[in-house]
């Protein structure tokens, strides 16, 4: 009964996935597994469980992201704590991790830099898969870096964290530079879903076409990349081809790769020798 009523409330509030979210909230309030919830869905909740579920449901009705209510997500073989200090890692960014690992698969002890690390997802994903990698993660936000350090401890991984504005103060050389930078046009902010408004704007929006920060990063990248080094970026399907063309004109070899559902999103670039 509690599950059905929670689904109805979330649907009325306009939550995009009311069934999934209601199940997660009931599980969080009761401590039940998914199977236990399904088998005992008609059982009445205890008073404390009802109170906890009501608090969670009210927050989700107000369109606070589910991940913030749960406090953690599973992403790329990692458990990551989530807070308003950093962007919630999106499932499609796991493709960026897969592409990055493929680039260093044959390289012993690769040196990797994750720019704008946020929760630390990409840096920690690299370190989880490649214990021999020397991984550095940077972010301009001290709060985001503290969250990333917590996630490193949570997953038992060692990464070097540096507070920096893009590549300021970093010298490398790095064999792989990867980043999921802010890439949405500023105009998108007025149309953002309520959940997205809980993410820090600093991690989402980047100028008129969404490429202001990415262009700054690309301009500085040759200074820190090793000879033959690779740069991998996640961008918006609306602007990734634009930056790929600019890179090609500036002496890079640039390729665009799709995400899980075929949207062109990831830019792989290597600086050609002059």
From TrEMBL:
<feature type="domain" description="Release factor glutamine methyltransferase N-terminal">
    <location>
        <begin position="2"/>
        <end position="71"/>
    </location>
</feature>
<keyword id="KW-0949">S-adenosyl-L-methionine</keyword>
<dbReference type="InterPro" id="IPR019874">
    <property type="entry name" value="RF_methyltr_PrmC"/>
</dbReference>
<dbReference type="GO" id="GO:0102559">
    <property type="term" value="F:peptide chain release factor N(5)-glutamine methyltransferase activity"/>
</dbReference>
<feature type="binding site">
    <location>
        <begin position="116"/>
        <end position="120"/>
    </location>
    <ligand>
        <name>S-adenosyl-L-methionine</name>
    </ligand>
</feature>
<dbReference type="InterPro" id="IPR050320">
    <property type="entry name" value="N5-glutamine_MTase"/>
</dbReference>
<feature type="binding site">
    <location>
        <position position="180"/>
    </location>
    <ligand>
        <name>S-adenosyl-L-methionine</name>
    </ligand>
</feature>
<comment type="function">
    <text>Methylates the class 1 translation termination release factors RF1/PrfA and RF2/PrfB on the glutamine residue of the universally conserved GGQ motif.</text>
</comment>
<dbReference type="InterPro" id="IPR040758">
    <property type="entry name" value="PrmC_N"/>
</dbReference>
<keyword id="KW-0489">Methyltransferase</keyword>
<comment type="similarity">
    <text>Belongs to the protein N5-glutamine methyltransferase family. PrmC subfamily.</text>
</comment>
<feature type="region of interest" description="Disordered">
    <location>
        <begin position="1"/>
        <end position="21"/>
    </location>
</feature>
<dbReference type="Pfam" id="PF17827">
    <property type="entry name" value="PrmC_N"/>
</dbReference>
<feature type="domain" description="Methyltransferase small">
    <location>
        <begin position="101"/>
        <end position="187"/>
    </location>
</feature>
<dbReference type="InterPro" id="IPR004556">
    <property type="entry name" value="HemK-like"/>
</dbReference>
<feature type="binding site">
    <location>
        <position position="139"/>
    </location>
    <ligand>
        <name>S-adenosyl-L-methionine</name>
    </ligand>
</feature>
<dbReference type="InterPro" id="IPR029063">
    <property type="entry name" value="SAM-dependent_MTases_sf"/>
</dbReference>
<keyword id="KW-0808">Transferase</keyword>
<dbReference type="Pfam" id="PF05175">
    <property type="entry name" value="MTS"/>
</dbReference>
<dbReference type="GO" id="GO:0032259">
    <property type="term" value="P:methylation"/>
</dbReference>
<dbReference type="InterPro" id="IPR007848">
    <property type="entry name" value="Small_mtfrase_dom"/>
</dbReference>
<dbReference type="GO" id="GO:0003676">
    <property type="term" value="F:nucleic acid binding"/>
</dbReference>
<dbReference type="InterPro" id="IPR002052">
    <property type="entry name" value="DNA_methylase_N6_adenine_CS"/>
</dbReference>
<feature type="binding site">
    <location>
        <begin position="180"/>
        <end position="183"/>
    </location>
    <ligand>
        <name>substrate</name>
    </ligand>
</feature>
<protein>
    <recommendedName>
        <fullName>Release factor glutamine methyltransferase</fullName>
        <ecNumber>2.1.1.297</ecNumber>
    </recommendedName>
</protein>
């Amino acid at each position: 009964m509690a599950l059905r009523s929670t689904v109805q409330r979330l649907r009325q509030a306009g939550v995009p996935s009311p069934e999934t979210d209601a199940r997660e909230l009931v599980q969080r309030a009761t401590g039940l597994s998914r199977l236990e919830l399904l088998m005992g869905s008609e059982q009445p909740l205890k008073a404390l469980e009802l109170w906890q579920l009501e608090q969670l449901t009210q927050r989700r009705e107000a369109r606070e992201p589910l991940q913030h209510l749960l406090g953690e997500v599973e992403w790329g073989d990692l458990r990551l704590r989530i807070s308003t200090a950093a962007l919630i890692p999106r499932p499609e960014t796991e493709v960026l991790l897969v592409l990055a690992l493929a680039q260093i698969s044959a390289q012993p002890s690769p040196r990797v830099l994750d720019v704008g690390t946020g929760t630390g997802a990409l840096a920690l994903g690299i370190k989880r898969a490649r214990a021999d990698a020397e991984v550095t993660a940077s972010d301009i936000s001290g709060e985001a870096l503290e969250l990333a350090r917590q996630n490193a401890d949570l997953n038992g991984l060692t990464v070097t964290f540096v507070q920096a504005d893009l590549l300021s103060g970093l010298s490398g050389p790095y064999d792989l530079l990867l980043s999921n930078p802010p890439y949405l046009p500023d105009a998108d902010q007025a149309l953002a879903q309520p959940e997205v408004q809980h993410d820090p704007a600093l991690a989402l929006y980047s100028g008129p076409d969404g490429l202001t920060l990415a262009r700054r990063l690309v301009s500085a990248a040759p200074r820190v990349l090793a000879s033959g080094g690779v740069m991998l970026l996640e961008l918006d399907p609306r602007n990734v081809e634009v930056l790929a063309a600019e890179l090609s004109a500036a002496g890079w070899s640039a390729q665009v790769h799709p995400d899980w559902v075929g949207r062109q999103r990831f830019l792989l670039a290597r600086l050609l020798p002059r």
